[in-house]
């Protein structure tokens, strides 16, 4: 690039900014899990989506966390129905260590 960094400087990246970049993801602000389908992500750079960082020093727990997430969510969805009176647009995400809803997430769970 066109940037010269002094020796010893610490550089950080902001995954949230990358993940919401309209030049990388069409409608980046919208919830669209289909953007990760193989046919829609085949030509994307490997570092365009980095929820666990990337490269040789990425999160060592990435595979375990992804597996645990799929198992946990599927277990909950098979057993419960979820409802909320909150509209997604009325509860913007806050960028902290991870994204979280600004006003919390009030839901009702009903056993199936």
Describe this structure in words.
- Heme binds at residue 59.
- May be involved in the metabolism of insect hormones and in the breakdown of synthetic insecticides.
- Keywords: Heme, Iron, Metal-binding, Monooxygenase, Oxidoreductase.
- Belongs to the cytochrome P450 family.
- This protein has 112 residues and is an alpha+beta fold.
- Helix content is 24%, strand content 12%.
- The mean pLDDT is 91.
- Strand 2 (93-95) and strand 3 (99-101) form a beta hairpin.
- It is globular.
- The strands form two sheets. A two-stranded antiparallel ribbon has the order 1-4. The chain has a two-stranded antiparallel sheet with strand order 2-3.
- The protein has a domain at 1-59.
In short:
The protein has helices at 15-19, 38-41, 62-79; strands spanning 80-83, 93-95, 99-101, 108-111. With 112 residues, the chain is of the alpha+beta class. One of its GO terms (cellular component) is endoplasmic reticulum membrane.
Key features?
112 residues, alpha+beta, two-stranded antiparallel sheet, 3 helices, 4 strands, Cyt_P450_sf
Structural class: alpha+beta
Helix proportion range = 10-25%
How many distinct beta strands?
4
What is the averaged pLDDT score?
91
Percent of sequence in beta strands: 5-15%
| Terminal-residue CA separation | 54 Å
Low-pLDDT parts are none
What's the tally of helices? 3
Shape: globular
The description of the largest β-sheet is: 2 strands, antiparallel
Query: Can you list the strand order of the major beta sheet?
Result: 1-4
List SSEs in N-to-C order.
HHHEEEE
InterPro entries: Cyt_P450, Cyt_P450_CS, Cyt_P450_E_grp-IV, Cyt_P450_sf, Cytochrome_P450_Monoox
Protein name: Cytochrome P450
Keywords: Heme, Iron, Metal-binding, Monooxygenase, Oxidoreductase
GO molecular function: heme binding; iron ion binding; monooxygenase activity; oxidoreductase activity, acting on paired donors, with incorporation or reduction of molecular oxygen
């Amino acid at each position: 690039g066109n940037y010269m960094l002094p020796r010893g400087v610490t550089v950080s990246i902001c995954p949230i900014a990358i993940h919401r970049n309209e030049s990388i993801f069409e409608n980046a602000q919208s919830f669209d899990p289909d953007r990760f389908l193989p046919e829609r992500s085949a030509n994307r750079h490997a570092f365009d989506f980095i929820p666990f960082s990337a490269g040789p020093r990425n999160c060592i727990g990435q595979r375990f966390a992804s597996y645990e997430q799929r198992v946990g969510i599927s277990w909950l969805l098979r057993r419960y129905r979820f409802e909320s009176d909150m509209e997604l647009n009325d509860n913007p995400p806050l960028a902290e260590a991870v994204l979280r809803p600004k006003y919390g997430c009030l839901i009702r769970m009903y056993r199936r």
